[in-house]
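Entry 14. Structure prediction run on the chain below.
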Amino acid sequence: MKYETALVERIRSLLDSDFEMQEKEMFGGYCFLLNRHMCIGVIGNSLLTRIGPDHYSKSLAQNYVKQFDYAGRPMADVVCVEAELIETNEELESWLEKGLSFVKSLPEKGAPSEKVA
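Output returned:
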């Protein structure tokens, strides 16, 4: 699945440079990770945001927000926000903040282990 590079650039421009974000292709799209936790992503022209349990149910009640389902497996703390809800930078920033707030609350992951062939 392709992702909209213009949305990736918008996200980059809005992210606080104080955060050391890693970027990589994941889920058939493009994701931003904080402390090696997936935080924000782009699939097509939609935004993925890992918002955690506090905002999850309330977010799903909104139009243009749905549960993120990857390969038939729903992710219980990630929502997919369609383009209609992130047209302005203020709207996009609101969703980015929800994702960043939740992921900042998670324990930092250790260094990845080396895989043995």
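The mean pLDDT is 89.
Filed with the rest of this week's runs.
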